[in-house]
Amino acid sequence: MFGYGQDIGIDLGTATVIAYSKGKGIVLREPSVVAVDNNTNEVLAVGKEARRMLGRTPGNIVATRPLRDGVISNYTVTEKMLKYFINRVCGKFIFSPRLMICIPSQVTEVEKKAVIDAASQAGARKVYLIEEPIAAAIGAGIDISRPCGNMVVDIGGGTTDIAVISLGGSVVSSSLKVAGDKFDEAIVRYIKRKYNVIIGERTAEDLKINIGCVYPKIQDMEMDIRGRDLMSGLPKTVTVHSSEMFEALIEPAMMVVDAVHGVLERTPPELAADISDKGIYMTGGGCLIDGLDKLLQEKTGINVMIAQDAISCVALGTGKALDNLDVLDNKKRK
Questions:
Q1: Ranges of CATH 3.90.640.10 domains, the chain
Q2: Other beta carbons within 10 Å of 162
Q3: Which one of 64, 202, 260, 287 is CB 3.0 to 4.6 Å from 282, fit for a cystine?
């Protein structure tokens, strides 16, 4: 079938799972949502199908996101989800694949072990871990092996990872549990406070993608959303403007900016000089919120660039790192 097993790189994100297969590129991009029947413990749907069920399930079916804030919050469901995705990518494999999985930069040993165990149980022959900012830097096309500083800000669904990378490793890094999910939560809270209407996380995400901004827009945009009125308990439609989204999102956005500032303060002076020359690279789906790059540039005074394929950067970097798996294996053997 596939010769001696297959090498797969997985960006195990809080919001999306992206898989990269050696020689084929990105082969899978699905929301990290699993629908499970509580009575039988059977997995009913994974990915896009399960995402449609979020907030719309009867009592016995639970649609959950098994990863929260960048780490595994439900071990058994994560294992089932990984198994499903590995089977999707490999088909019926003769040999178990080798997996390289991304993890946030500041995870504990216990959280690392949970990822390795879940992947092994799901059918991986060998599991390697790579830090998200390093994978993101490789995916953004930065040569990380040279002795000069590069700063990467990777904003995913659950975590924002900030790292200064030089000579293939991170010199200073920080991981913040403020990212795409927290932006959605801020929108839900804002709509509830201002309009007395409750909306679901999918509606909040649509608002964020379509009219969300963290830097004042020249032209105000609007969007109609539906939710449940808290006073009457009935469905209600409200029109939301991008200027209101700015109010809702500026607080979590400033937390990200402050974290970047904190990492810059701890960066050795030589590397800080490199960064002010080259600029800051932003990757991950969360960096696509309108104006986040402008906000960061204004507050730090450093040029900010959004990587070309921001959402897939981490997966692409993991894929490129797969090519060095044999080197890693040989090092371990020696």
A1: 180-248
A2: 26
A3: 287
In this structure, whether the domain defined by 7-134+314-333 belongs to CATH 3.40.190.10 is answered with no
State how far the Cα of 217 lies from the Cα of 229, in Å rounded to an integer: 29
How many whole angstroms separate alpha carbon 95 and alpha carbon 2?
8
How much helix, strand and coil, in percent to the nearest 5, is found in the chain? 40, 30, 30
Phi, psi at 137, each rounded to 5°: -65, -45
Q: Give residue 92's pLDDT.
A: 67
Which residues, 6 or more positions from 72, have their beta carbon under 8 angstroms from its beta carbon? 66, 78, 111, 114, 115, 118
Residue span(s) of the chain under CATH 3.30.420.40 come to 7-134+314-333, 143-178+254-309
CB atoms within 10 A of CB 22: 18
* DSSP bridge partners of 46: 34
Q: Is the model's pTM score more than 0.85?
A: yes
CATH homologous superfamily of 180-248 equals ATPase, substrate binding domain, subdomain 4 (3.90.640.10)
Query: Span 143-178+254-309: which CATH code?
Result: 3.30.420.40
**Would you give the DSSP letter of residue 290?**
B
- Does residue 99 contact residue 116 with C-beta atoms inside 8 Å? no
